[in-house]
Give the backbone structure.
Amino acid sequence: MITEQPRTRKQASSQEQRGAYKIVTWGCQMNVEDTDQMALYLAELGLREAERLEDADVVLLNTCSVRRKPEDKAFSLLGELRKLKESRPETIIGVCGCMAQLRADEIRRRAPHVDFIVGTAQISQIPGLVRETRQRRRFQKRLELPPRKGATVTDLPSRFDLGARPDVNRQSQTVNRSSPVASRQSPKIKAFVSIQYGCDKFCAFCIVPTTRGRERSRPTLEILEEVRALADRGVKEVMLLGQTVNSYGKNLLEGKVPFARLLWKIAEIEGIERIRYISPYPRDYRDDLIAAHRDCPKIMPHVHLPLQSGNDTVLKEMRRVYTVESFKEIYWRLREIPGMAITTDIIVGFPGETEEQFQDTLSVVSDLRFDGAFMFAYSTRPGTPAGERDDQVPRDDKKRRLSELIALQNGITCEINESQVGRVFEVLVEGPSEKQPPSQYVRGRGEGERHTTTEQRKTLWKGLTRHGKTMHFPRSGGVSAKLAIGNRIEARAEEAHLWGFYGKH
């Protein structure tokens, strides 16, 4: 709920001089990274981030259309923003992201107070739209997507000071090393780096090819320059993003670049200690990528490998171009790498899915024993082949199947984590934890008592293991040099949970 409070003369004057923005984000890691780039553009206009929506002069909603729930949340917030617009007509409201790309006309009809709508490929237009809206109030939209053939990504948001990336010559693929590469972003330990946009797979349930366009890869040197700049700012871990990230390297001016080759090049960058990526496509796993996981210590022993269904007929109707057996072959090859953790995505209740086919999925999950999973009931998406089918699974059946799957997989995850209690993990220290310490870590508390003071919560820190699991641990004995944010420590897992571990270093 937005609560509008009158601003003091001092506050109003400050806002007029500098201005503030607020971005609300739903969806995947790609959307989070898009939000980072929107923030960079708004910072170039001299805007700072507001803590509250009602304090912002520019409000952007970065939306998601993968499922219905985030769309409903976006429309609900737009309804609340109508009141803010009525009380402060000068507020600029923009809608961005996948829902903007897909449902622009509906957004305009249901929320006429929106000033502009920006699609997924037009983030760079946001500064100009903000300037134009300040000068004259008229609705605008930018929804163009690159053509579906032969496109390379050339229009990317700036990440560097002076409003420009390094001078990359896209014909010769050379870089002017004298160009400034100090990132605008605040120092942080982990960062997302988009290496690919769009998708050419056209799964029957997915709206991404419509909302983000065809698959296109960023030039290799441009990615490497960005990662070097992030390393210069103290980033230790990068997460490479793409809709089918391991198919990276097509339609580049420099020629085809295998994804594994890009990983090795990033591993050579000084300061980068950990490399992750999401989301790969099972069919696109090649020998060189599996070998890179085995041989390169900077590539983390964690793969998120989307299964979607454990039945071949359902996979075929989903237009997933692999079978259960071919998936298992890749899975077991990855499991041969010592310490490899594998997580997955699964959809239940896809149109036409029978009870027997669902049971096949449960059987595969029981057999493979994933470390974790994102599990969903199928959500109808207009404009997709699956959304047009007349054999939709009843809602109650989908809910029941999802509950069964969650119970099975969560039990497996807890069993795996329990089996690792006592093991020592390398942990990248991220800082204070939001979780309360277990009772045994809090002195002076009765057994089972979980209430803690703010000061006690500050003693519990967190980090991520190489396998992608969270470790919470007490920060003992005052300020330790080893416990500085960004350092790697060794921590022993002492208590297992669904999300990871409590431990001690």
